[in-house]
Amino acid sequence: MGVRRIVTGEVDGRSGVVSDSESTTTWCDEIWMTTAEQPFGLDPGAAQQPLEPAEGNSHFRIVTLPPEAIIREAMRAAAGTIEAVDADGFHKTVSIDYLIVMDGPVELMLDEGSVLLEPGDCVVQRGTNHAWRNHGDKPIRLVCVMIGRS
């Protein structure tokens, strides 16, 4: 389930497409990122980026969540190796994250309860402990913009 990314820019004072490509990653497509040195951003390349952006930086990504049975097994196998993620997939970042559910339903798990989200629903994740549950039998996608804060 690749993601097509079109990047615009100016060439000789005229706007146009400077790149048009499709990703090949499996669970997290890094679309674009910004830094203090590159405020209009840069291609994150093929390398997996840290879970959260540094202070003042941003990450634009498409996250693909496999069905629950698959992700549970992956989390158990990766426990202690993925920065800040426990065996149940719970994690807490210091970023502010804007998410749009593309496919669904998907369940957002929190320390106190959960919320079932449908395609088109939006989430503002403000540095809280959370996990995602895909109870369906097909992968689902979340559009996510993460902004690093201190």
Brief overview:
The protein is mostly beta strands and 150 residues long. It is 7% helix and 43% strand. The chain has one domain: Jelly Rolls (Sandwich), CATH 2.60.120.10.
Explain the overall architecture:
The chain is mostly beta strands and 150 residues long. 7% of the residues lie in helices and 43% in strands. The protein is built from one helix and ten strands; from the N terminus they run E-E-E-E-H-E-E-E-E-E-E. The chain has a five-stranded antiparallel sheet, with no helix packed on it. Strands 7-6-9 form a three-stranded antiparallel sheet, with no helix packed on it. It starts with a strand and ends with a strand.
- Class per helix and strand makeup: mainly beta
CATH architecture: Sandwich
Spatial extent as radius of gyration: 16 Å
What is the N-to-C succession of helices and strands? EEEEHEEEEEE
Spatial sequence of strands, sheet with the most strands = 3-4-10-5-8
First and last CA, distance: 34 Å
- In CATH, the topology is named Jelly Rolls
* Total beta strands: 10
Q: Which consecutive residue ranges, at least 5 long each, have pLDDT under 50?
A: none
Number of domains: 1
Overall average residue pLDDT? 84
Corresponding CATH superfamily: Jelly Rolls
- Give helix % range: under 10%
